[in-house]
Design a protein that fits this description.
By secondary structure, this protein is an all-alpha fold.
């Protein structure tokens, strides 16, 4: 049975599972940010634990396929080296899981921080959707909303 699961989860299938798997978390963040489901399921370590498991699975499959992990450090040499790394599907899915995880973590932080400051959940819809699609830009939009709501700038909070 474990071998069937291992064979089922190739890179393309895992890509779809990761993409569709995070959607319920984002929908809960956007539409039910103050619910207990959001508090205990979405803004906790749970989704990061699941995505980390997918990441470890890809690392394991890559290791078995003799992936050259040392070449990953070539991404710091230049843009051409980074472009070459993205031609490898194993590296690409590792990057994608990393990207999806960080965006989801950021969305959870936005919800928790807005609740702490008493920001209306309607104002969170745009920054959360943008964070889902383009992480840092959504965080910037939230930060601007936060400045106008708190009427102060706090760079170290």
């Amino acid at each position: 049975m474990i071998e069937q699961i291992y064979n089922y989860f190739n890179i393309e299938i895992l890509y779809y599972w990761v993409n569709f798997g995070v959607l319920p978390f984002w929908l809960i963040l956007i539409f039910f940010p103050q619910s207990n489901i959001c508090k205990y399921l979405v803004t906790s370590i749970f989704p990061i634990f699941i995505l980390s498991g997918a990441y470890v699975f890809i690392l394991y499959k890559s290791y078995l396929n003799s992936f050259d992990f040392i070449s990953n450090f070539d991404l710091y040499i230049g843009i051409e080296s980074l472009s070459d790394l993205f031609t490898n599907k194993s590296f690409l899915i590792m990057f994608w899981i990393h990207f999806v995880s960080i965006n989801l973590f950021t969305g959870g932080w936005i919800v928790r921080d807005s609740q702490r400051l008493g920001i209306n959940k309607i104002l969170l819809i745009l920054p959360l959707v943008i964070t889902y699609l383009i992480g840092p830009l959504g965080l910037l939009i939230y930060w601007l909303i936060r400045i106008f709501h708190a009427k102060s700038i706090n760079l170290y909070d």
